[in-house]
Amino acid sequence: MAVVLDPEGEELRALAAFVEVSSGLQVLEVGCGDGRLTRRYAAQVARVTAIDPDGDDILHAQDKLPDELRDRVEFQAVGIEEYRLSSGAPSFDLVLLAWSL
Amino acid sequence: MVHALAKIHSLLQPTGVLVDIHPTPEPPAIQVRVGSEIHAAGWLREADDYVEYEEADRAIDDAIELGMFVLERQGQFDFTTHAGTLRELKDHLEAEWQEAFIEDTTILAIEDLLRTPQQDKEILLRESVRISRLRPLPR
Q: Domain extents for chain B?
């Protein structure tokens, strides 16, 4: 068997208990790595901007993203301090800082 | 880290929330499951003793003290990594967690527990993870 991370789904269960994940949510995920967590919740929200300073991780995240999520997930190879909003106005309902602080 | 939280504050809607997920500073437990029985084998060690997780806790505390956020809720859950063999676990750690290492006594305990003829067995790496929900305060 290959290594399997959290097949029990405890992480997603905890996230759902802490925030009302809904179809209108605009999410910024900071430190998304290879998009492991992104892929688990993205279908339930309106849009995800997932960032990570590691360009290789972002390439893996883009490769692993299922086709049905491509219209709602955008991966960017950038750290939080360099990240710039295109509009300049605060726009996220949820910032998810997953394993990255 | 506090700078990162200040940046996040500026990106959130006033009604938005920040959810932070990071492991606690306690070393993760390494166990071996054989059938329905779970046996303790030891702990995963880290070269810098998980100092980054203590720093993450401090950054959250600082952001609250500075009036950026208010802590609305905090909890913990277990994040478990399942590996079929010691080699698989070591390869995973080498790729994803370079600072981590397994002490020789723990390796011996894992090998001993896996020596059973029973086929239904695996290694479990159990991390205790803290989850926090923070609401931005007006600045």
A: 2-136
